[in-house]
């Protein structure tokens, strides 16, 4: 097994040293082995685990979902249904976020349609933002 430093792990995984330490503190990464000089040492499996974490974070999975999937991946003979359920739940959240963004886009397009000419006192965007009849709160993530 090849052992390397946290700096080398950071370069190979594309994850900052401080983030690696944070992942260790929160349990996403197991505690690093220590060399005789007490420095952390890592191996190929750590690079693979960090690559998994990085990709899952890029896809928007939260830390708890990643933790669950990592735990499930340690039991390769288990059915995949639990992992599917985690991914399905995340997909639903992504779809809901897209719907909110589409509503936000539509409202911005409407406001911009009545703007761009005249004076600030007649600005459609400012009137639209001041219009309390719209439920603007529904456009944002909870």
UniProtKB/TrEMBL annotation:
Q: Which UniProt keywords apply?
A: DNA-binding, Transcription, Transcription regulation
**CDD domains the UniProt entry points to:** HTH_CadR-PbrR-like
* Superkingdom, taxonomy of origin: Bacteria
Transmembrane region(s): none
Q: Tell me one GO molecular function of this protein.
A: DNA binding
Q: Which residues form the HTH merR-type domain?
A: 3-72
Q: Does the keyword Isomerase apply?
A: no
* PANTHER family in the record: HEAVY METAL-DEPENDENT TRANSCRIPTIONAL REGULATOR HI_0293-RELATED, REDOX-CYCLING DRUG-SENSING TRANSCRIPTIONAL ACTIVATOR SOXR
Q: What is this protein called?
A: DNA-binding transcriptional MerR regulator
């Amino acid at each position: 097994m090849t052992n390397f430093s946290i700096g080398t792990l950071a370069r190979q995984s594309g994850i900052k040293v401080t983030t690696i330490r944070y992942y260790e503190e929160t349990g996403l990464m197991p505690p690093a082995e220590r060399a005789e000089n007490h420095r952390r040492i890592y191996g190929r499996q750590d690079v693979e685990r960090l690559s998994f974490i990085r990709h899952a974070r890029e896809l928007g999975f939260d830390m708890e979902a990643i933790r669950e999937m990592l735990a499930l991946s340690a039991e390769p003979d288990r059915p995949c249904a639990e992992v599917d359920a985690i991914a399905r739940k995340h997909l639903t959240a992504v779809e809901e976020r897209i719907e909110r963004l589409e509503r936000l886009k539509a409202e911005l397009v409407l406001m911009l349609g009545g703007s761009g000419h005249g004076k600030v006192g007649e600005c459609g965007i400012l009137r639209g933002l001041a219009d309390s009849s719209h439920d603007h709160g529904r456009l944002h993530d909870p």
